[in-house]
Amino acid sequence: MTFFEIIGFIVIFYYIVQVILWIILDCDIMLYYKTQFGKPINTLKDKVVWITGASSGIGRELAKQLSKNGVRVVLSGRNIQELEAAKLECMNISKGQLKSNDILVLPFDMLNLDFHRGAFNRVISHFGSFHILVNNAGRSQRAEWNKIDINVDRELFELDVFSVINLSRIAVTYFDKYNIDGQLAITSSTAGLFGAPNSASYTGAKHSLHGYFEALRTEKNNINVNLYCPGPTFSNFLQESFIETQGAKYNQRVSGTDRRMTTERCAYLYAVALANNIHLSWSGIFPINLILYVGLYYPNIKKLLMTMGVTRLLGKVRDSR
Ligand SMILES: NC(=O)c1ccc[n+]([C@@H]2O[C@H](COP(=O)([O-])OP(=O)(O)OC[C@H]3O[C@@H](n4cnc5c(N)ncnc54)[C@H](OP(=O)(O)O)[C@@H]3O)[C@@H](O)[C@H]2O)c1
User: Fold this and answer.
1) pLDDT surpasses 70 at 250
2) What pLDDT sits at residue 321?
3) Which CATH number goes with the domain that contains 264?
4) What is d(CA 247, CA 234) in angstroms, rounded to the nearest whole number?
5) Residue nearest to ligand 1 atom 25, measured at CA
6) Which of the residues 202, 228, 268, 270 is marked catalytic?
7) 46-71 pLDDT tens trace
8) Is the pTM of this model over 0.85?
9) How many domains does the chain have?
10) Nearest to 145 by CA among 286, 291, 311
């Protein structure tokens, strides 16, 4: 074999391995690597992690994953009963590592920006400090692009973007003041990396979060930003999703037969991303990984596939069929 044949062989081998990994893994390659060889979740044990949207779905499961590893948590959301139930689950799963005082239930509406400072003060007065803010509360969307009322765009951005930015600014100001190497996590979505059909405002909102937090990264070295982008995952989100009309909800349930990642797996991968301080990571069962790698790293192939009618397939993946 000549030198150039060997190089050619290595390149082809590299691409074959990559494509196989994109097909078989349920998350990006770095995140998967960290699940096997990275820092375990219990390295977060001494930290206080504040999770918004902890009353259900991904946020609630993340709280459990962290509690299982002895991490102290603040659980926020609007539904007090569900937050109390989540606290109980966290206590049980921690198997005695956490006392009642180690889990703070802090209910508030993210849309009430005036309350954010008070909520923050409550966390500090309870724990003395905190280390990671997980911006997870949010609502998705199902609506045709041209039919969306502009007020829905505004409402969705209020919750999924502006409330997140407002709370994060309070946290960053605190980290700055006390010279703390703070960590901000953001539950983005695969829609934050790749346009999702029938979710224009949501796609715009999640992309916008990437912009805000990329800018933060360039300004402040003491702040670690973890953008985590789940693909379709079991949760209550279909009930709560915005549609095209202001004030209305999609009001549908996910079905047990949907092709979605389990909430447990999604939250476990999220916890690994936090423990390993991963800048950008994603999760999702086949073909999410494949779509994202091609979409992000091979835009010309993406363009070609779109012209070949792959958009219909995207719709099916989006609806988890
Ligand atoms: N499930 C998926 O397929 C998927 C995929 C990609 C990204 N995500 C993202 O994951 C995050 C969590 O969603 P999920 O799927 O776990 O849905 P979920 O089960 O509906 O959970 C949403 C959470 O957000 C909270 N929330 C909603 N509006 C709020 C408000 N105004 N103030 C305070 N909290 C509020 C809810 O709490 P209360 O009702 O108690 O207020 C709830 O705890 C979202 O940011 C979503 O965009 C989900």
Assistant:
1) yes
2) 61
3) 3.40.50.720
4) 24
5) 53
6) 202
7) 899 999 999 999 999 999 999 999 99
8) yes
9) 1
10) 311
The mean pLDDT value for 219-234 works out to 96
CB 157 within 8 A of CB 201: yes
Distance 218 CA to ligand 1 centre (A): 28
Pairing between β-strand 103-107 and β-strand 72-77 as defined by DSSP bridges: parallel
AA letter at 91: M
Q: What is residue 54's three-state secondary structure?
A: coil
- Report DSSP letters for 232-287, one per residue: SBSSSHHHH-B-SSTT-B------TTS--B-HHHHHHHHHHHHHTT-SEEEE-STT
Q: Is the pLDDT of residue 317 over 80?
A: no
Instruction: Decide if 32 is catalytic.
Output: no
Predicted local confidence at residue 310, as pLDDT: 74
**314 lies in which domain range?**
3-318
How many Å lie between the centroid of ligand 1 and the Cα of residue 15?
Answer: 37
Residue whose entry in the numeric block shows the structure tokens 């779109």: 306
Residue of 221 and 108 predicted with greater confidence:
108
AA identity, residue 230:
P
Nearest CA to ligand 1 atom 36: 53
DSSP, collapsed to helix, strand or coil, labels residue 314 as helix
